[in-house]
Design brief:
Blueprint: H1 9-19, H2 24-40, H3 51-63, H4 69-86, H5 92-95, H6 112-121, H7 124-136, H8 140-144, E1 151-152, E2 157-160, E3 169-172, H9 175-197, H10 209-212, E4 232-233, E5 240-241, H11 247-262
Antiparallel strand pairs: 1-2, 2-3, 4-5
Helix pairs in contact: 1-2, 1-4, 2-4, 3-4, 6-7, 6-11, 7-9
Amino acid sequence: MDTPDAPRLLDRVRDRIRLKHYSIRTEQAYSDWIKRFIRFHGKRHPAELGATEVEIFLTHLAVERSVSASTQNQAKSALLFLYREVLGVELPWLDGVEKAKAPTRLPVVLTPDEVSRVLTRLQGTHRLIGRLLYGAGLRIMEALRLRIKDVEFSRREILVRDGKGGKDRVTMLPRGLAAPLRRHVAAVETQHQADLKDGFGSVWLPQALARKHPAAGRDWGWQYVFPAGHRSIDPRSHVERRHHVSDQAFNERCTRESATRVRQARDAAHAQAFFCYAPTGSRLRHPHRARVVGAPRRQYDDDLYPRPEPRRARCVISPLDRL
């Protein structure tokens, strides 16, 4: 139980999350689930609750709220974090709570013709982002978090920092995207200069870089390649700055275009369908990736699904130049 002078429970949760360098989205999700858990049990302190209350809450989510298995497991992970990392309570009883099993689904993968039609209907920055996903094999957040210094036009390379699994990698910049991306970067620089004149122009910096180099956030190289159209308040530092484009807006636009005009007789495609992927345990071929690693070759319809390739397979010319 918290003492009157002790930090509030949710403040302790946030401090612990930031100490372990979890993302802002994880912080928001965990905090939300912990608040729901407390409200569900009449605002009783979690230290007073146990295995029975946790099981009742998770059962309520599955039975009465009809949440998916992934949502239920996220709630369980939030409660595990609360008890183990914040309250310091051993949880042998929570380890015994059965984990919901998510169904195995086939990924929705767009055909080249469908990708071309979706990209044609996208406009402005969203279209450029979509072409970058398809042409360079980037994931959505990898593209949105690109900084100016990560794009090398002379070598036609893109450096992806802190990608999936916390790993960096280098991918190619398709020839057909070089010119439109240069024009876009020039417009972003004009916008950045206007922000500097207004007394802003600083962006969020990773780790402790902002403390080591206070002026780095205003440098041109650290600006986002795809900045948002307006400035917003940082939820952690409460500083007004310009963030990158929202991934939710891009996802909604791609899903709407694919559902209403491109894939009317089939499932609507999430924006991540631009990046071809496979179930756990195998890597599938992306048409524009310079090097891929995959499972042994199997028979796939090239027009419907990406195809597993041998370890040394390479792609020399990007078909994106024809879009």
